[in-house]
Amino acid sequence: MNDYIERRRTARLSGWLFLLWIVLGFYDMFFVSPKIFVSGDSVASAQNILKYEFLFRTSIFSGLLTSTLWVLLVWVFYGLFRNVNERYAKLLVASVVVQVPVAFVKAGLSIATVMTLKGDILKSFELAQRQDLAMAFLKINDYSVLALELFWGFWLFPLAILIYQSVFIPRFLGIWLVINGIVYVLLSFTSIVLPEHKDIVFNVGMPAMFGELVLMLWLLIKGTRDKGITSA
User: Fold this and answer.
1) Cβ atoms 171, 163 nearer than 8 A
2) pLDDT single digits (tens) 163-200
């Protein structure tokens, strides 16, 4: 019984971390980006970055917080699943940790964007040149995200296996996460190799991408079921 209570507390903690992680991601995706970036108009986007500089900087900081929460989340997952399959639990941690340096590079490029637009650096450049360079920094950020989508899929595979092998979280969530991970991998592939087909993959795969959200709600509300552990 004590093991069950401890496991349920760990699951609930992972649910809260998962929730904060998702909320911060939504903050940048649905609140900051639509307010600042104008599709096909780099000049307007550059002007909005200066106009909403504080908002843009909060987005940079939230990105760093998101990465920190992700590491904490996967560490809690390791504690929750290591008795299920320690090899896959370690693989889960590794698949997240390798992505963290990219978050710091992205933050650096975003800060450089603000400094370039304000003229704090590259002062000898004309305004139009600084705007072009700043947008180039942001484009690099965008392409790094396209590459990271591959790892957003990869981290779900060991998590899905761990959920499926355990008996305290429904197996259908593990199956859902596998499909969720495949969609991310396909999005990364099409975005880089076949960009004209990215929207098709995104629209078709959208339902599968709610797998992480459903897992978060299960962990937050239910925790774990009162069953034992199967080891592999």
Assistant:
1) yes
2) 999 989 999 999 999 999 999 999 999 999 999 999 99
The model's pTM? 0.88
Half-sphere exposure of 115 (CA within 13 A, CB side): 10
The residue count for the chain: 232
* Structure-token match 């903050």, residue found: 27
| Long-range contacts from 172-179, C-beta under 8 angstroms, 24+ separation | 173/211, 173/214, 173/215, 173/218, 176/208, 176/211, 176/214, 176/215, 177/211, 177/212, 177/215, 179/208, 179/211
DSSP result, 200-215: HHHHHHGGGGGHHHHH
98 near 152, Cβ under 8 Å? no
Secondary structure letter of residue 54 according to DSSP: H
Helix (H) and strand (E) counts in the chain:
11, 0
Residue spans of the domains in the chain: they are 2-221
Q: How is residue 54 written in tokens?
A: 């504080």
Q: DSSP letters of 171-187?
A: HHHHHHHHHHHHHHHHH
Maximum alpha-carbon separation in the chain: 69
Q: Are 133 and 125 in contact (CB under 8 A)?
A: yes
Interatomic CA distance for residues 127 and 124, integer angstroms: 9
Strand stretches in the chain, DSSP E: none
